[in-house]
Write a structure and sequence with these properties.
The chain has a three-stranded antiparallel sheet, with no helix packed on it. About 55% of the residues lie in helices and about 5% in strands. It is built from ten helices and three strands; from the N terminus they run ααααβββαααααα.
């Protein structure tokens, strides 16, 4: 209903702008809907540990070079998602120049054309990214994006979703996990570690603190 009303408002505004209408019947129409406020779904920390352990086990027991390469990339993707809380679209849009592993900085181009820089302090995440870059350097050079698929093209959001579903099943996790749930888990765990909410807001790239404040209702402590 909201989508249809927004479309009609835009259409009548256009007609008014082109002077096809003397008066816009939607200009004084104020319709508000009460929507259910659902809390963000998170992944328990022990499930994240199990998920990551499964990835590393599959890498160590890969039966072919192709399988090992895929595992190296999937580990880098998952580690980065959980270590930064970035959106899946932001991750897939990363360019090689956006990731400076020497200074451990990542430049993220977020919603509303806003840039933010995140620091990665976890050595395991940096090691996973370094191994990925080293293994896929030729593919990255051809593609122009940091994360690539088997066709040497930009890794898609859907590919990451399918990858996460696959490893969640292999890890024996009953919970349905999406890439965005890593973002929710990241924010909730930071709150539980007493990280300042303003700092979390900057890390997540939220323009309003009220968006970040929803995680205070999810936090266990």
């Amino acid at each position: 209903v909201k989508r249809k009303i927004a479309s009609l408002k835009a259409f009548f505004h256009y007609m008014e702008y082109r002077e096809m209408l003397r008066e816009n019947p939607f200009s004084k129409l104020d319709i508000r809907f009460r929507e259910a406020k659902l809390l963000p779904k998170t992944v328990p920390f022990h499930s994240i540990q199990t998920f990551l352990s499964t990835l590393y086990i599959w890498k160590d027991h890969a039966e072919s070079d192709y399988q090992r390469r895929c595992c190296i990339r999937d580990i880098a993707v998952t580690e980065l998602l959980f270590a930064t809380g970035m959106r899946i679209s932001e991750l897939c849009s990363l360019k090689p120049s956006d990731i400076d592993l020497e200074s451990s900085n990542i430049l993220i181009y977020g919603k509303g054309s806003k840039e933010r820089i995140l620091q990665i302090g976890n050595p395991e995440v940096l090691a996973a990214l370094s191994l990925y870059r080293e293994t896929f350097s030729a593919d990255i050079a051809v593609c122009g994006y940091f994360f690539v698929n088997r066709l040497r093209q930009k890794l898609s959001d859907q590919s990451v979703r399918l990858m996460i579903n696959r490893y969640a099943k292999l890890a024996g996790l009953s919970q349905h996990i999406t890439p965005h749930m890593f973002r929710h888990s990241f924010a909730t765990l930071l709150l539980e570690q007493d990280v300042d909410i303003r700092y979390i807001q900057k890390m997540l790239g939220h323009s309003s603190i009220s968006t970040t404040e929803i995680y205070t209702h999810v936090s266990n402590t």
